Amino acid sequence: MSKLSPEHKFFDVSDYGRPIAKFCANILKNTSATPVQVTLVFGICGLCAVYGILHGFYVTAGLLLILKSIIDAIDGELSRLKKTPSYTGRYLDSIFDIILNFLVLMAIGYVSQLSVWLILMAFACLQLQGTLYNYYYVILRNNSAGGDATSQIFETKTPKALPGEKQKTVNILFTLYIFLYGIFDRTIYAIDPHAYKMQSFPNSGS
After folding, report:
1. What is the CATH number of domain 6-205?
2. Domain segments of the chain: what residues?
């Protein structure tokens, strides 16, 4: 199962880790490893990168950030291979993303002695760019026959837990997701509220 159907796939520079992620997911396919466990490793890797930035291990931190990006793709690939989609993994991944983005930027600002307001502005711009990308990407995913639909175009209602996960966990993670992402989602939707009606987009991006 792919996130996008063949007619909706596009060249994505930011997805550089996907080939390695697919290789690793295939290795883990027949093990007891779960996608959520991989997501937790992704979070730990990101925190180690933040630690490296704060303590001057910049090369190590840079390598860890690249590794984090690859691991971030493994959990989704593993979920599709094992046919175990979950809202738990979907929201946990996004929550880790935004928290780690904030911590990495704050760590860079701290060692560079930059203004906190400048870092917060950079964080807001980063999140808006990511939300803009995801908005159109999720529209394509939902338009793809058989595509991955654990992400919804409009995240306004707590989804029903899928087999193998607890509704209480989904409720908690969804609430936290809305708290962290709500303002960015609403901003992008206000800019282009009719994008979901489109059937296709240019097949190149970054």
Report:
1. 1.20.120
2. 6-205
**8 in helix, strand or coil?**
helix
d(CA 138, CA 157): 16
User: Is 3 a residue whose pLDDT tops 50?
Assistant: yes
For residue range 54-85, what is the model confidence (pLDDT) as tens digits? Answer: 999 999 999 999 999 999 999 989 998 999 98
Only one residue has tokens 């560079």, namely 112
- If you write DSSP's letter for every residue of 23-54 in order, what string do you get? HHHHHHTTSS--HHHHHHHHHHHHHHHHHHHH
- 182: its two tokens: 């709500």
Closest to 13 in 3D by CA, of 203, 200, 204: 204
Mean predicted lDDT score pLDDT of the chain? 87
CA distances from 181 to 27, 86, 110, 131, 205 (A): 33, 19, 24, 8, 22
205 strand-pairing partners: 12
Q: What is the reported pLDDT for 7?
A: 58
pLDDT at 181: 94
Please tell me the distance from the alpha carbon of residue 144 to that of residue 1, in angstroms, as a whole number: 11
The stretches of the chain forming alpha helices (DSSP H) are 18-28, 35-54, 58-82, 87-112, 116-143, 167-191
